[in-house]
Amino acid sequence: MEQEPLLMIPGPVPIPQRVRAAMTRQAINHRGPEFGAAYAETVRTLKTLFGTANELYIISGSGSAGMEAGIANFARDKRIVSLVNGKFGDRFAKIAERYGTVTVLDSEWGTPLDLERLERELEAGAEVVTMVHNETSAGIKNPAPEVGRLARKHDALFIMDGVTSIGGDDVRMDEWGVDIAVVGSQKCLAAPAGLAAIAVGDRAWDRISEKRPFYLDMAAYRKSGRGTPMETPYTPAVPLFLALHEACTIIDEEGVPARIARHRRMADAVRAAAEAWGVDLFPTLDEHHAYSNTATALRIPDGLTDKDLRGTVKKFGIEIAGGQDHLKGKIFRIGTMGGVGAQEILATLAAVQFTLKKSGVAADDGVEAAAGVLLG
Amino acid sequence: MEQEPLLMIPGPVPIPQRVRAAMTRQAINHRGPEFGAAYAETVRTLKTLFGTANELYIISGSGSAGMEAGIANFARDKRIVSLVNGKFGDRFAKIAERYGTVTVLDSEWGTPLDLERLERELEAGAEVVTMVHNETSAGIKNPAPEVGRLARKHDALFIMDGVTSIGGDDVRMDEWGVDIAVVGSQKCLAAPAGLAAIAVGDRAWDRISEKRPFYLDMAAYRKSGRGTPMETPYTPAVPLFLALHEACTIIDEEGVPARIARHRRMADAVRAAAEAWGVDLFPTLDEHHAYSNTATALRIPDGLTDKDLRGTVKKFGIEIAGGQDHLKGKIFRIGTMGGVGAQEILATLAAVQFTLKKSGVAADDGVEAAAGVLLG
How far away is chain B from the Cα of A33, in angstroms, using its nearest Cα? Predict the structure, then answer.
């Protein structure tokens, strides 16, 4: 019997059976009360995960569509500073470049963002800041509270990519001064790919552009979203809404603090294994930056290739991620997002450990160290 | 036992069990060969339905997103003529207005488009024509071959909304001179809502704009779509792709000519019932225009309200559509799209007939007339 592969990558993640089953029912009218109630309930849960009382709407599109909605509606023709220390920061800057005048503040991938340069740009009149909160390409968590504070101080808008943090790590949109935040459905929420949720604060609504795209027009989402029943402006991806609704029900059942604690424990377990193996974590941190709690990036030890490592792990039916772009062959990444728990972590670390030991690059028992962390 | 409602509206339509079941499997890697093969096979079937040898890509978004992709990439800053004789023509014009200079050629909803005025606009230098092929808001089919011929004659691009015709009626993109055509997943294809497919011909590719949106950047779709495995530029709505793939397998099994013939027969049956009842069809036709074969619009007879009509039909678990905007209360619409057949048509017409007879506005047996048509 062939098992379905276990995806331990930084998204998409395994989808709980209940969530998948929610998609099997017959089409329902997306202008009716049942759809509206599901939409509204999903929004309620998501607001808790975002840490916000702001309006929040769901777009039928990927996380990138959500980010583009933020830029195209609220940063058009503006001076934008894009903080970049990984692939998704880079993508966010590329989206911004389609609409505004962008200054990219580049750091080596996986190294701290330069907050001093950010402040100088804000002093020089930058109107919008973009940042990826949790940069899975490098396993680093960026300092949202500090960036939010600086943006507020200089009256700039702060647009945050929370695609891989929201739902798995602590996010406090309102407390941190984030004006626009976006999450994707297929990461920590453990729903299928294809939806993005975007929360927008009053400071952003006050500055909405006159010129807006059509499908990603946030004024249209607001208009349809405020009605009864709650609706989307254009035909939504109905099965994905029903799936995300069920995923949010599961999140409500677990409770947000427990969910965040579980994600932290899973990442702690992976880091404990790495320490026992003597495998270096990839990111370089400072006092403002931390290791990601939803994706851990590790250096591939000398004496082992990316292909051998991931190929051997895959023989056990488990997929972990390699490095992207110039990090290909240099790092590997283990996602610990969504509904997975001790079973999946232990299996994954055991498969990695088998590969490391076989290649003679690690001797000590990282799995045991991780197991200890998982039991708390 | 409460039945799932039968949606006999102009989309979304009932989704076959096989198609819904395709969404229940675990998440698969959307950068892998299995996803790529499903995408490529789906594209192959869709090209047959579009009547095209052009490149065709699938966007995770609604039909409106597909239309915006056509406009934003290929009509930006251009002189656009938008033909309008219904709600979706109007929406297409509104999308066009976000990107170019638009002349709207307005006809009363459900009446013929003015091809003479179109030719004058083309002679005056219009560069792009937009038209909805099958205008479900009014039950009219617009003259794609004639518009294509005029656009070619004057070297303009022709962008056609085929959202509710492709897969259910005869469409010959290449033969008719359509440069860009779009279909939605939840109409004649009988898949869930949430995907749009867009086919783009060489004349359009040659004129692609330098300035493009990000999520709907057709150059990005082309780049990812030409690789092996076939990919999308951003994370796709994986379950919806798998569902559409299964829907296309069903279409291949039925065969395209048989599918189109079935749609025609269903619409013929509805029209035969209307004639027997003495209920007027809504559209006014000329030699270039025809009744829609996927959605029939009928005038609500005197002595009956929209609420009574649709409310009574709904008591049988069947949803038919009312009029939109200024046609609300004046017409009702029966969708005959996708996987439905004689069972659904007979049930729907019987429920409508019951309501008409109860109100004393029709006496004759439209169901019998329809049944005769269905048996051929």
Answer: 14
